[in-house]
Amino acid sequence: MFFSRKEFFPHEKELVRLNNITKSYDGQVILDDLSLFIRENEFLTLLGPSGCGKTTTLRILGGFEHPDKGSVIFEGQDITKLPPNKRNLNTVFQKYALFPHMNIAENIAFGLKIKNKSKAYINDKIKYALKLVNLDGYENRMPDSLSGGQQQRIAIARAIVNEPKLLLLDEPLGALDLKLRQDMQYELIRLKNELGITFIYVTHDQEEALTMSDTIVVMNQGYIQQIGTPESIYNEPENAFVADFIGDSNIISATMIHDRLVEILGAKFDCVDEGFGNNTPVDVVIRPEDVKLVAPEEGIISGTVTHLIFKGVHYEMEVMANGFEWLVQSTRMRPVGQKVGIKVDPNNIQIMNKPASEDEEASHVEI
């Protein structure tokens, strides 16, 4: 089923479609009937914990693995059994995979030489690619003379000179320090916008996914848990796994008394959700920045600040209230030991169905 994304992006052209992909290793199911389509010129991120199936999905797209069941459709053609070198795509790995005995120009030109391109064409492409990644004049340098960030840019330059329709990136920034990683995030966004190439990016870093993506696909245990824009994934998680994995959250068992009224930890909170029934067990998600600390008598519930950390742009506090330790982020500091009240705007209370079992919690959604 593909209706939800088609409705969300009705005028976008489809580039890649994964149909009912299943993959197992040694009897363990890694991908279970996964279906997804990817639009042209989209920056789509596969996000999830280790072992969720995101890298396997990327390797199947790249032709490095073949599914046990299902098909890969690229520009309307079935490429499921095509080898990597026959697909109009390139892959950038975390380990750079530069040839240490070749200089930068030779590394970038490697794929073009295999395609028997002319020397003039190759030289033009080398200069073009180095300019794109802001490394003009590095043609004669050796890989070991470059920093990690520079090596990663060369790996990207080597991929883009082949003019692929699709660029696969497997945690390419994982080996870089924080500052370099942030710089490269902006570089990748710029390159995607300038080149018009579709990017499929694999990461377990939530901040990275939220920063760069047009679309995020959250995966767990071989299933797609949710798909949407960074804003919708963060603000409207569809289940407790997504809420917990994307950013910090207060996830609390509660009871939906009736439409627009939920009981949380014995107190009644107004909310905006409807259609969950009456006196129904639910899970509630409240982001820490949405918890308002007020005077004890002004809160719906009250508690005591138990921990305090200064994070630079805000303070992060823990408040014990009604037997639950609330995570709170605020620009106003409340000292440890202070009595406070807790209020939450109804629009910031996210109600979710409570899964009946662990299997249901890990089950896939229709894409």
Structural overview:
The protein folds into two domains: 3-235, 3-Layer(aba) Sandwich (Rossmann fold), CATH 3.40.50; 251-357, OB fold (Dihydrolipoamide Acetyltransferase, E2P) (Beta Barrel). Helices cover 26% and strands 35% of the residues. It contains ten helices and 20 strands. The strands form four sheets. The protein has a six-stranded mixed β-sheet, with helices on both faces. The chain has a five-stranded antiparallel β-sheet with strand order 13-12-11-14-20. It has a five-stranded antiparallel β-sheet with strand order 15-19-16-17-18, with no helix packed on it. Strand 4 and strand 5 (77-78) form a beta hairpin. Helix 3 crosses helix 4 (119-132), helix 3 runs parallel beside helix 5 and helix 4 packs across helix 5 (148-160). It is elongated. It starts with a helix and ends in a 5-residue tail after the last helix. The model is unreliable at 1-11 and 357-367 (pLDDT under 50).
Number of helices: 10
Helix amount, in percent? 25-40%
CATH superfamily descriptor of the largest domain: P-loop containing nucleotide triphosphate hydrolases
* Cα-atom radius of gyration: 24 Å
In short:
By secondary structure, this protein is α+β, with helices and mostly antiparallel strands. Helices cover 26% and strands 35% of the residues. The strands form 4 sheets. A 6-stranded mixed sheet has the order 6-7-8-3-9-10, with helices on both faces. It has a 5-stranded antiparallel sheet with strand order 13-12-11-14-20. The chain has a 5-stranded antiparallel sheet with strand order 15-19-16-17-18, with no helix packed on it.
